[in-house]
Amino acid sequence: MPTEPNTPTPPTGCPESGVRVTGEEPDAAMGLRAMTLTMVNCGGTPHTVTGYPSLRVLDADRTALEIEIDPGAASITTMESLRAKARPLTLRPGERAISVVVWRNTVTDAAGPGQDARYFDIEPLPGQARQQIAVPGGIDLGTTGRVGIGPWHTPG
């Protein structure tokens, strides 16, 4: 069982990029793990986001794991919301966009060790500083080495 990561203190203020990314506690219903990411424009100017979050998965030492990031998550689940067409969104100050990250703890190679990670590392806007999110309970990837991600979209 993974140990809880050291959860950083929630950020105060607004990062220099003008956007902040946070994550909700993952839902692990029926073996599919799903975590909602929320990007909030906390700055004073509009920001346009397109496509999918730029995502890396980090272990407990905050070292990036070599895994497959599957936009649309077709190799992991049939959830329609993850397969929505990515489109540009302009977030005015105070507005937000969400994306969902999914994974399974699937073991396909009994001889190999499973991969466990603790953090998602996200570049909210191209060229901006990456932000790390501690994942409560960890990211238990099994031996598949695969995470799926949905496009940024407005909630609702």
Index terms:
156 residues; mainly beta; Immunoglobulin-like; 5-stranded mixed β-sheet; 3-stranded antiparallel β-sheet; disordered N terminus
Describe this structure in words.
The protein has one domain: Immunoglobulin-like (Sandwich). 0% of the residues lie in helices and 41% in strands. The chain contains no helices and ten strands. The strands form three sheets. The protein has a five-stranded mixed β-sheet with strand order 1-2-7-10-5, with no helix packed on it. The N and C termini lie far apart (34 Å). 31% of the residues are buried.
Helix amount:
under 10%
Please tell me what the overall shape is: globular
Q: How many H/I helices?
A: 0
Share of residues in strands: 35-45%
Mean pLDDT: 85
CATH topology: Immunoglobulin-like
Evaluate the radius of gyration. Answer: 15 Å
The number of E-state strands comes to: 10
Q: What kind of assembly state do the chains in view correspond to?
A: single chain
**SSE succession:** EEEEEEEEEE
CATH architecture: Sandwich
Q: Which helices and strands appear, and what pairs or packs with what?
A:
Elements: E1 19-23, E2 32-41, E3 47-49, E4 54-58, E5 68-71, E6 89-91, E7 96-104, E8 115-123, E9 131-142, E10 146-149
Parallel strand pairs: 5-10
Antiparallel strand pairs: 1-2, 2-7, 3-6, 4-8, 7-10, 8-9
